[in-house]
Amino acid sequence: MENEEKVMKCKECGGRLIVSDYGEVVCSECGLVHEKIYLQPLFEIEPLSDFSAVEKLYVNPDGKPLRKEDLGSTFIHINGKLKDNRGKEINKQRFFRLKRVNTIYVKKHDRSIDAVMTLLRVCSLLNIPKSVYERAGYICNKILSGKRRVGTTYQLAAASLIIASREHKYPLTLKDVIRIFRELGHKVSAKSIMRITSEILNELSIKTIAIEPKDYMTRIMNILKSNIEINRRVIYFTGRRVEEYYNRLMNYSLSIYERIDEKFRIGKNPYLLAVSIVYIADKLVCKELNCQPILSQKLVSEVLGSTQYTLRQHMKYLNKVVKIEGNYDTN
After folding, report:
1. What is the pTM of this model?
2. Among 100, 167, 272, 319, fewest CB within 10 Å belongs to which?
3. CATH classification of 213-326 is 1.10.472.10, yes or no?
């Protein structure tokens, strides 16, 4: 008894020795660490040479799993028995019943979750309105809940976003959607998205809604306003405030659009046609202000993504419209 009392006392102050939560023998009075011991773990771990465990289990110091999978339960196979992270044995019959339920849950919801999360990220990067995102998510879930499989998860998400943007008249181009998905590492193409878009429209009996060039006008103006070089040219050439120039540019663009024959718009890319309209509108604005045009074909192609060839093709018709209707010289 005397030897045990000597062992359990601190050599420095004579205080009682205790075992801390960190597995160390320390003095309860002065806190001096005397030695380290190993506490019994909260769960069993098989030797590294034994590969009978189904999967590895990583836990925090308090014994809680670092991550939870699927339905939130993690079990490991130890010496022929199923045990949870606390070392408690699990009933095998109950476990396999849970496993079947978990498999059904994962099959049904994995694609849906991936599609919705991908849509959320893409919409965030493109500053898509909440109404468009919610509609795209609804279309995605509707298709996934059906028996027919339509494309990959990412192709379906992209196609749903295109359809939702058309329904809400939001000026989103297919090119922008493909660019964002590819930047995120997803393999999508214009051909696959348009094919799946057509299948979704037929499957859900959604009426095709064509977006018009005028729907892109506001977006084009915002892109131009955000360009420092263009704003610098506006101030230097016109001597007017930037907002005044863009207001005039918008008014002229809408006016030109109203003069265009509907037959000419058929088969034309609405975004590229809108860019061409803005380009010729700039010439009219600068003629009225008696200054050099702000937008050049090269600048438009770099900032707005239209080719110079496309601009020249559209200008053949737009020049005739402006000259006949407004008696303007844009050469």
Report:
1. 0.58
2. 100
3. yes
